[in-house]
């Protein structure tokens, strides 16, 4: 029995391999828990009451109100400019009531009153031109054509999004990479144990042959 226990003692290299495997297992589990609480759960909540629909433009207009944005012109150069508010009102295939269109969830949170936030330029006139170009796009190029939009009846029943920030690809990566880390750790531990077991058996067979 004493000889058996000594034979199953791991070498320094095998011990390091086992530690690496357990470290990857712990990292994978902690990553799954962290991403689940900080990212995956809010993303699923945003998607929970939502779905997709066909949208048709009802009206495109600029409000008289202007909003502030922050531009950067260098490492230590920042300033504030202003842009006009563009609103794109649409009708969805799920409801006859008009809804305000937004680029995505991030834009909706930044400025829920407008449909578009231009890249902030130092010149207010350039910002106005960008908004006017977007207005012409929705009026002339899209017009009465239907397009896919997304909504969430529980969180924002009067707003729809042109695209989702938390799409299926993001959710997949949130789950995939921690799982891969966990499985690699399990694989390292299993292979180390199997290799040690085979080595011990080979040594035992060798001793029997010599006897």
UniProtKB/TrEMBL annotation:
Pfam families: CaKB. It is a multi-pass membrane protein. The chain crosses the membrane at residues 20-40, 170-193. Signal peptide: none annotated. Its main location: membrane. It comes from the Eukaryota. This is KCMB4 protein. The gene is Kcnmb4.
């Amino acid at each position: 029995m004493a000889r058996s226990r000594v034979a199953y003692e791991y070498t320094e290299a095998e011990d390091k391999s086992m530690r690496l495997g357990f470290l990857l297992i712990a990292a994978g589990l902690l990553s799954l828990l962290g991403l689940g609480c900080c990212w995956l759960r809010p993303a699923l909540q945003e998607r929970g009451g939502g779905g997709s629909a066909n949208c048709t433009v009802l009206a495109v207009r600029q409000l008289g109100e202007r909003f502030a944005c922050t531009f950067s012109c260098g490492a230590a150069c920042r300033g504030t400019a202003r842009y006009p508010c563009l609103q794109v009102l649409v009708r969805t295939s799920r409801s006859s009531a008009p809804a305000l269109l937004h680029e995505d969830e991030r834009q909706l949170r930044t400025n829920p009153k407008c449909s578009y936030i231009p890249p902030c330029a130092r010149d207010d006139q350039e910002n106005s031109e960008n908004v006017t170009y977007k207005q012409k796009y929705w009026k002339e190029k899209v017009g009465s054509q239907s397009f896919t939009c997304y909504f969430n009846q529980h969180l924002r029943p009067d707003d729809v999004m042109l695209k989702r920030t938390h799409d299926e690809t993001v959710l997949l990566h949130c789950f995939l990479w921690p799982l891969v880390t966990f499985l690699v750790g399990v694989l390292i531990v299993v292979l180390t144990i199997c290799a040690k077991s085979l080595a011990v058996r080979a040594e035992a067979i060798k001793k029997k042959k010599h006897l």
